Recover the amino acids of this structure.
């Protein structure tokens, strides 16, 4: 319990035990083509991450803009963590919405080109960056809502699973899931743990083996996402949801969150070095490189047709 409290205290870098009353500006927040209100401030933009913090509501929106498909490259993840750390330190920010600035895709997951034909040193840095990103989002004391506005396979799904609540556009063309086996690769244990924590043992057993990508209705049915909304209601619903969560005193919520997530985080932290070695060794294999190469060709060929 003491370590949970310590973890929670660390997480409680955001404002504690305060209630945010100003929910009134949410009605301005309408669509995924989001117009930031005049009260927005601390806007920061890196080349791949756009952040807007609304000082009235305490809600920050972090948008991915890494065309064409928001793949999680080493550069993207590095910029993500820098932007994230800034928000974590900002006491006026109580919650973060993760969404995409690109149409039709939330995130295509890990950048395959960072795993294919790169040096072991590069892949080590790449995997460390992913671990870092996950630890920050999954372990955050802020409320984190995923506003999923498009495809969200593999690492994109992990990103969503790391949030406290997932809202997805109600559109059967958008798919989400842990599809790694389809690429001939194996999602690490902590991807699986996040999925299992969310959809349960049996569903994750089926899901990770078959590499199932679920459409939005299926994802809702199995609990992979919490809510479906029309496209033009995505950001307003995410903001309204966030503001409802703000009614819970931060400190109590943060300790509860840390308590629930502690085992999964501790397991990952304990296996962190081995996980890096495993990834680099695995992706060194000729057979894995071949699978990744074929998958990239398939993606490109699909476009050519
Ligand atoms: C021991 C550990 C082992 C390793 C475990 C690692 C775990 C891996 C987790 C992962 O995240 S692996 C990545 C999995 N991602 C996918 O399977 C998604 C693949 N992409 C798609 O299905 C589609 O691109 C999309 C996201 C549904 C979007 O479709 P759309 O039709 O809009 O776009 P495309 O024409 O397919 O693609 C455009 C452009 O982007 C390139 N691209 C797509 N995905 C990736 C990617 N993940 N990484 C790098 N590049 C990607 C695609 O090839 C096209 O390129 P160009 O032809 O324009 O050059």
């Amino acid at each position: 319990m003491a370590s949970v409290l310590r973890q929670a205290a660390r997480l409680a870098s955001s404002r504690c035990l305060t209630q945010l009353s100003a929910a009134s500006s949410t009605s301005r927040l309408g669509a995924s083509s989001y117009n930031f209100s005049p009260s927005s401030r601390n806007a920061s933009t890196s080349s791949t991450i756009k952040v807007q913090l609304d000082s009235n509501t305490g809600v920050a929106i972090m948008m991915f803009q890494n065309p064409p498909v928001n793949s999680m490259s080493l550069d993207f993840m590095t910029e993500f963590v820098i932007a994230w750390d800034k928000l974590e330190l900002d006491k006026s920010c109580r919650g973060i919405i993760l969404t995409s600035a690109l149409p039709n895709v939330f995130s295509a997951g890990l950048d395959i080109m960072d795993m294919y034909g790169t040096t072991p040193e590069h892949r080590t840095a790449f995997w460390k960056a992913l671990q870092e990103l996950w630890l920050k989002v999954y372990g955050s004391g802020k409320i984190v809502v995923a506003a999923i506005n498009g495809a969200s396979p593999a690492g994109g799904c992990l990103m969503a699973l790391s949030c406290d609540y997932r809202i997805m556009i109600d559109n059967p063309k958008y798919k989400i899931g842990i599809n790694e086996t389809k690429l001939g690769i194996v999602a690490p244990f902590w991807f699986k743990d996040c999925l299992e924590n969310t959809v349960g043992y049996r569903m994750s057993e089926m899901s990770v083996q078959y590499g199932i990508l679920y459409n939005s209705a299926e994802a809702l049915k199995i609990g992979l996402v919490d809510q479906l909304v029309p496209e033009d209601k995505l950001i307003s619903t995410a903001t309204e949801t966030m503001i409802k969560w703000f009614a819970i005193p931060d400190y109590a919520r943060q300790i509860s969150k840390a308590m629930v997530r502690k085992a999964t985080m501790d397991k990952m932290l304990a296996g962190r070095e081995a996980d890096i070695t495993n990834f680099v060794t695995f992706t060194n294999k000729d057979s894995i490189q071949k699978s990744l190469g074929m998958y990239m060709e398939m993606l490109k060929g699909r476009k050519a047709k």
Observations:
- The chain has one domain: 23-304.
- The chain is about 50% helix and 15% strand.
